[in-house]
Design a protein that fits this description.
alpha+beta; 4 helices; 22% strand; globular
């Protein structure tokens, strides 16, 4: 089974996590267990898991202070168009209202 590229966002910090999973919805639940903030799945790019490393490298200047695969919300303006167009920005751009 192909792995999928996913982007998850914290509703408090706006930070996004870019990762890979065969089941992104299940991964969201796993991450939620360890997070004090509500997390939401912004997008799943089916079968694009092999692009994770290059996307991490591309967004390295926005690496969030936390460990792992988290990036500051500011990186969303630098996401490649093929990723950006899959995100519902009406949902992603409201994190600071919480």
């Amino acid at each position: 089974m192909n792995k999928h590229l996913y982007i998850i966002q914290s509703d408090v910090t706006g930070a996004i996590k870019i990762g890979v999973s065969k089941n992104p919805q299940k991964r969201l639940l796993q991450l939620q267990t360890g997070s004090p903030y509500k997390l939401k799945l912004l997008t799943v790019l089916k079968g694009k898991g092999t692009l994770e490393r290059s996307l991490h490298d591309y967004l390295k200047p926005y690496k969030y202070a936390c460990k792992g695969e988290w990036f500051d919300f500011e990186c969303t303006g630098s996401l490649p168009e093929w990723v950006s167009e899959t995100i519902d920005w009406d949902i992603a751009n409201v994190w600071w209202e919480n």
